[in-house]
Amino acid sequence: MTISELSFFNLALAYLMFIVPLAIMMWLRLPMISDTLIAMVRMTLQLLFVGFYLQVVFKINSILLTGLWLLVMIVIADLSIVRSCGLRLRAVAGGVFISLLVGTLMPLLFFVFFVFQNSAALGAQYVIPISGMILGNCLRADIVGMQTFYESLRRQEKAYIHALAQGAGLMEALLPFVRKAFHAALAPTVAAMATIGLVALPGMMTGVILAGGDPMTAIKYQIAIMIAIFTGTALTVLLAIFLTIRGNIGRDGLLKQEIFADQK
After folding, report:
1. What span is annotated as the signal peptide, if there is one (predicted)?
2. Per-residue pLDDT reduced to its tens digit, 24-75
């Protein structure tokens, strides 16, 4: 069995399901209908553009184009994280970019060379989807981790100052906030791993099965990619915090308030 071609007409029929959530929003009088419609249009246009572009990238199968696309993905994720966390771009963008780069490339390359053990896996058809799955999860975890860390440090500044006054080093004083942020960022992924296969079939596994692959093969690949995702997420969150905090702590040991976008 091979996956059936989905025509644009059939895709258009799928939009009929969208009437249900829109009707619920109208009934509840939620002020988010226009935002939802805009998001749906953006999603459609963005995915269609990516689809056409990836057809070209897969056909050419150039390492340069694949690397360029991966960098574009990381830059967009970087900007999205900084904006969602309410932080200033120039204060944290560099550190977040490096954390995303390391957190995506390390598990990706390990997956390709040691798990997949096939040089063909360096092709665009493999690298882009796998890195996209890893990066997408890193993005969500980074938003939660960075937001939790900096907001906690901002709200509990007195506890942080007290720790410094008691003789704690910088990292020692920051550790409770790092621990809290790391836990908050990784908790959703841990919960997803604990219920995977029982509550929902994840994307990679579903894709392999729809393409006619053996379910056991799909399961083995999904286990490997979940480990890669969890590893990338852990690396990214920890690196993002450590790489951004150093430059935003003043000589007095206090967090520079100008790191927050709402500070003038």
Report:
1. none
2. 999 999 999 999 999 999 999 999 988 888 888 888 888 888 889 899 999 9
Output the DSSP codes for 131-200.
HHHHHHHHHHHHHHHHHHHHHHHHHTHHHHHHHHHTT--HHHHHHHHHHHHHHHHHHHHHHHHHHBTTTB
Give me the torsion for CA of 64, 224, 229, 236, rounded to 10°.
-70
Can you read off the two tokens belonging to residue 33? 């209908």
Burial (CB count <10 Å: 0-12, 13-18, 19+), residue 136: middle
- Closest alpha carbon to 229 in 209, 204, 198: 204
Extents of the domains making up the chain: 1-60, 61-259
Query: What token pair was written down for 58?
Result: 């897969």
Residues linked to residue 260 through DSSP beta bridges, in sequence order: 87
